[in-house]
Amino acid sequence: MTAPAQNPANNINTADLYDERGDELASVSLQFQSLGGRSHFSGTVRTIRCFQDNALVKSTLATPGNGNVLVVDGGGSLGTALMGDMIAESAVANGWAGVVINGAIRDREAIAALDLGVKALGSNPRKSAKAGAGEVDVDVQIDGVTIRSGTTIWCDPDGILVER
User: Fold this and answer.
1) Is the pLDDT score of 4 beyond 70?
2) Nearest to 129, CA basis, from 69, 57, 32, 73
3) What HEC string does 76-95 produce?
4) Residue 88 and residue 118 in contact, taking contact as beta carbons nearer than 8 Å
5) H-helix or E-strand containing 117?
6) CA dist 60 → 28, 86, 93 (Å)
7) How far is CA 24 from CA 4, 12, 16, 95, 104, in A?
8) Dihedral in degrees, nearest 10, Cα atoms 31, 60, 49, 87
9) For 44-67, how does the pLDDT look when each residue is reduced to its tens digit (9 = 90+)?
């Protein structure tokens, strides 16, 4: 199965954007993998901080996304997946532009076929807990970059830029 066609409006290159805006933007140097069917994505940030528990990820992506990007700070854990294909399909159905996970996903081949931007550290078939532990719309730090709900994020194969 091939990935969906890209929407030209989402094809903002982070290198060009950084050249234009420079220090107005923070660059996440941690090397995330591009795992979704949409290589370029951007939008207003919503945040979640959780550790090996994806209940908040699932419930948030089941709400209207309005082209937003969910940033999940999973503490960098690769021990369990914080998103699989069913949650990713819910994100597409609800209009989310993308998901950035400082942690793992699973079902990466199915997710690669979806019209959804996904950046994650890697994958693990092990599912996570579902207790609902974590926090929503809090400042998160990934690789020394503070990411706040309500700011804008841009992602492409070169990396991740966030409004300061």
Assistant:
1) no
2) 57
3) EEEEEECCCHHHHHHHHHCC
4) yes
5) strand 117-123
6) 23, 13, 13
7) 32, 16, 13, 28, 29
8) -50
9) 999 999 999 999 999 999 999 999
Residues 6+ apart with CB under 8 A from 31: none
pTM of the predicted model as reported, rounded to 2 decimal places? 0.93
The Cα–Cα gap between 109 and 111 comes to 5
Q: Which of 10-14, 126-130, 159-163 has the lowest mean pLDDT?
A: 10-14
The amino acid at 76: G
Cα–Cα distance for residue pair 161/147, rounded to 1 Å: 10
Q: How open is the CA angle 33-66-117, to the nearest 5 degrees?
A: 15
